[in-house]
Description:
Elements: H1 17-25, H2 56-68, H3 73-88
Helix pairs in contact: 2-3
Amino acid sequence: MSNDKPHDPIPEEFDSPQAAGEFWDTHSLADYWAETEEAHFEVDLRQSVYLIPVEKDLAESVAQRAKAQGLSSQTLINLWLAEKLREAA
């Protein structure tokens, strides 16, 4: 698609990261290049992530509960583990 053809406007906001992904899966950034602007940000590469296996059924239950609370599974698990560690201290 060339830059002088009309294209769908970029939404002001996306409902979710998945919605943004779906938009960009079907649209080319080349068609929107004139609408982009330079961005500056910092990235902290020191943060560590630890992958711990979880049983499938347990992971699905956590995901359902997290979604109901408007949280990611990762956030809910971190909150629960911190709470349990405080209780055990």
